[in-house]
Each structure stands twice: as C-alpha cells, then as structure tokens.
Amino acid sequence: MRNILEIRDLQVHYGGIEAVRGISLDVPEGEIVTLIGANGAGKSSTLRAIAGLVKPSAGKISFLDEDITGMDSSLIVSKGITLVPEGRRIFPDMTVLENLKIGAYLRKDDLTEDLNWVFDLFPRLKERSWQAGGTLSGGEQQMLAMGRALMSKPRILLLDEPSMGLSPLFVGEIFKIIEDVSKAGTTVLLVEQNAKKALSIADRGYVLETGRVVKTGKASDLLNDDSIKKAYLGE
User: Fold this and answer.
1) Helix axes 112-121, 168-183, angle to 10 degrees
2) Quick check: 154 and 78 in contact, CB under 8 A?
3) 24: which residues sit within 8 A by CB, 6+ positions away?
4) Low-confidence residues of the chain, pLDDT below 70?
5) In 67, 74, 172, 231, which residue has its Cα 20 to 30 A from 56's Cα atom?
C-alpha cells in the first residue's frame, strides 16, 4: 500500500521554542494513523504544519509524492488535505447547513450527494440543519466541524483532539464515525489525548515526546505495550 503522506525530519519553531524536533512518519493510504503523547509533545504542531497553518523551519512534507512543504493552506485544501482543528471553530451564527456548505467553498460541482452522505453519518445534523451552529451541544458542534471538513471531499482528514471536552456518549459516537469515514475511503491522521480509544480504532500509531517520535508500530502492538500502558493508558 502506498503512502499518501510522508514527513521527513520535520521541525517547527514558534520563536525560540522548538515544538517539533525532526519528526518522520508515514501515513499509508486508506489507514487510520494516530499520534499520541502528552500535551506539548508536538502533535498539533505537526498537523498544523501539514495543513499549511505554520511554516516548518526544516524538513519535508510530501502528499502523493508532491512536496507541499510550506505551501499555502488554501492550496493544500484544494489538493485534498483538510484539518478539523482543536476547539471545532464552527461559525456560530450560521446554520448547520450554511456551515456545511462553507466546507465545500472550493468546489464547483453539485453538493447534494455529499450533503446526504454527511447527514447519513451525522443524523443529528440533519435534524438541526436550520439551527444556528452556536446553539448546538459540544458533541454536535464537533460533528458539524467534521461534517464541514468532509464536504471538501478530502483524500486525508486531519483530526486534532476530536473527543476533547465531550461526554463519554459523544466520544463513542465520534470514534465510530471516524471508523465509518475511514471505511468509506478517506485516510485519517488522528491526534488524540484519549490514547486508548485512538489506538483501538487505528491501524498504526506514533508516540511523540517533546517534539520527537519515541516509538511507532501497529496500533494493536502499542495498545499491548507495557510502557505505553503505564504512560498513556492509565494502567
């Protein structure tokens, strides 16, 4: 299976702070790959660099064998890479339907089929399609943020802490939907504090500490690794 995304020796600085210190990783097409680690490990900075929201200070990011390092974020979206940022960042005064359509702002084709698919994935959004996004619950806003991202028809979906602040019921729903999105053919790169949940649905994982990859492998192997259990799974 070919890699849809390859990162080599990525470095990201914020002023004098080195957030990412030479990370290398591969994301095979069609898989769910997760990055786990403590706060400040460099996970979100890695996603932001891929999405073009921060400029890497060194290293290379390749998408389908094309060098996209430092490319403008709107161009990166047009190539098929979409980020669902931490904190959701929906448009609170716009309706659910308007938020979803904004996700397709680069598209010129008919949106009906993809809107129906998003509503099938997220029935709550269909029920609330004329409701202002800001009136939704936290879990529903996360669903809206994911649905909006999917409306751009991404080849790879970058998810930054999708379960943060959600009730256990919504957490289960969100992870089930991530699996459904993957099965429908979208590659997923997932950053998640809930390491146990992330590794339970992922194909492979990378463990980050202080801006470096310290361990990688099949997600099932990491889930059963004693050092990972102790450090990240609360066991």
Assistant:
1) 140
2) no
3) 7, 8, 9, 10, 213
4) 235
5) 231
HSE toward the beta carbon, residue 24, CA cutoff 13 A: 2
Instruction: Please write the tens of the pLDDT for every residue from 86-109.
Output: 877 899 999 999 999 999 887 778
Which residues have C-beta within 8 Å of that of residue 16, sequence separation ≥ 6?
none
- Residue 71, phi then psi, degrees to nearest 5: -65, 150
Give the C-alpha separation, 46 to 26, whole Å.
13
- Asked if residues 43 and 162 have their Cβ atoms less than 8 Å apart, the reply is no
Return the amino acid letter for 60: K
How far is 95 from 135, CA to CA, in rounded Å? Answer: 9
CA dist 98 and 18 (Å) reads: 38
Region label for 205, one of left (φ > 0), alpha (ψ between -120 and 50) or beta (otherwise): beta
**In the prediction, which pLDDT does 88 show?**
75
User: Phi/psi zone of residue 30: left (φ > 0), alpha (ψ -120 to 50 degrees), beta?
Assistant: left
Query: Percentage of the chain surpassing pLDDT 90?
Result: 82
pLDDT, one tens digit per residue, over 170-213 is 899 999 999 999 999 999 999 998 999 999 999 999 999 999 99
| DSSP state letters, 16-84 | TEEEEEEEEEEEETT-EEEEE--TTSSHHHHHHHHTTSS--SEEEEEETTEE-TT--HHHHHHHTEEEE
Tokens for 235, please give them: 């066991």
Residue 29 and residue 2 in contact, taking contact as beta carbons nearer than 8 Å: yes
